[in-house]
Amino acid sequence: MYTLSLNHSTICIHFPQITEFAAQFLCKTMIRLRYRRIEIGTGDGGISNLGFGKRGIVTSCRAVLLPRFGGPEMLEFRDNVSVPDLKPNQVLVRARAVSINPLDTRMRSGYGRSIFEPLLPLILGRDISGEVAAVGNSVKSLTVGQDVFGALHPTAVRGTYTDYAILAEDELAPKPGSLSHVEASAIPFAALTAWRALKSTARIREGHRVLVIGGGGAVGFSAIQLAVAAGCHVSTTCGGESISRILAAGAEQAIDYTSEDAEVALKGHFDAVLDTIGVPDTERMGISLLKKGGHYMTLQGEAASVTDRHGLAIGLPMAAAILLKKQIQYRYSHGIEYWWNYMRADAEGLHEIRRLSEAGKLQLPVDKTFPISQVREAHEAKDRRQIPGKVVLEID
Fold it and tell me: Where is the Enoyl reductase (ER) domain (predicted)?
């Protein structure tokens, strides 16, 4: 027996005697009629392939498009945005909540223009929490109906501000059961950025001293919690409003940069410095506080800004030359390693982030939620710094 489910105005029809050929014909007919979601499954809970290679077939959905760069008014909430076919390693996720990251507002304003302008319109968004709607043929670790969370790479063109997002299998993990979709959606991108710096680059371990410059933001606070969980001694600079939360997370020292001289207050030297601010003063301070052989990592690498100024052909080689020059300079002058760090997919990291989140050792508080239809208002609030913490878009 086959079941045909149409998620346009929720219709379910049972076919006790239908053949696979007839079911396939019905499915293709309904796609032509522009039904958004079509599932054909066996009555006992199994699924018929029908030649499509996935359980659910979504041809269009709602999404927030960015047709050109600018302010929040550029964001357009549209119906009937097409959904690409899944590649074998990809997963279609029915989004329930997506968080707003600083990268989203910067990309909307034109950051990375040299890369993204030829690809407009874009769908912004990196974080997601939702349910698996369909899987590619080679996906083994996730199943349809499973709650998942994850994050896309910074250069992804089709983001998560949409009913149905597409991510690679290694960009997703089962959602922590103790967290809501809103809470889970705030974590992956920031935590994976911090993981890449501390675990993949600096290779922190128990007993290391770690300094996080700018511990009050999402990446900084994630880094503090990851370092504490690894058994490190953590110090940080932050605004006064974040001190109690940071100390409660296990940091040994939290310095209010608005009222104290951090260089005077910080004692000793560190094995790793993660600089989430990345201005010349914080770079100078971070490097001066490192031990020989230590790692300085900044999130404010110059690759995108240099390519925006000079174009890809000149900008990318120029950015690589700038990075190499700094690496050689600091290796010989201070005996330290210098890095620009970016988020990237890391299945091992995401599963460890999930484990820590489940155990209550890694969480990012959400300050405010908006329905996705109010995405302009949410971006405007972030631009005006009316909401200092995490903002999440809910998708009904």
Answer: 70-393
pLDDT in tens, 16-65: 444 444 444 444 444 333 333 444 443 333 333 333 344 446 789 999 99
3-state secondary structure of 32: helix
Q: Are strands 37-42 and 56-58 parallel, antiparallel or unpaired?
A: antiparallel
- Number of helices (H) and strands (E), helices first, in the chain? 13, 19
* Cα angle 154-158-161, degrees, rounded to a multiple of 5: 90
Q: Using an 8 Å Cβ cutoff, are 345 and 171 in contact?
A: yes
- d(CA 350, CA 172) in angstroms, rounded, equals 7
Domain ranges of the chain: 55-175+365-394, 190-340
Q: Is 121 exposed, middle or buried (0-12, 13-18, 19+ CB in 10 A)?
A: middle
The pLDDT value recorded for residue 270 is: 97
d(CA 99, CA 109): 18
**Burial (CB count <10 Å: 0-12, 13-18, 19+), residue 315:** buried
CA 52 from centroid of its chain's CA atoms: 29
Confidence at residue 46, expressed as pLDDT on a 0 to 100 scale: 37
- Per the document, the length of the chain is 396
Q: Quick one: which of 285, 246, 280 has its CA closest to 389?
A: 246
CA count, 13 A, side-chain hemisphere, 196? 20
* 303-310 vs 312-333: helix crossing angle, rounded to 10: 140
The DSSP element (H or E) to which 392 belongs, if any, is: strand 390-394
Query: Does domain 190-340 correspond to CATH entry 3.40.50.720?
Result: yes
- What is the homologous superfamily of the domain 55-175+365-394 according to CATH? Medium-chain alcohol dehydrogenases, catalytic domain (3.90.180.10)
Contacts of 355 (CB under 8 A, 6+ apart): none
Q: Which residue has the higher pLDDT, 56 or 333?
A: 333
Segment 82-87 long-range contacts (CB within 8 Å, at least 24 positions apart): 83/58, 83/59, 83/164, 83/166, 84/158, 84/166, 86/53, 86/54, 86/134, 86/135, 86/136, 86/166, 87/136
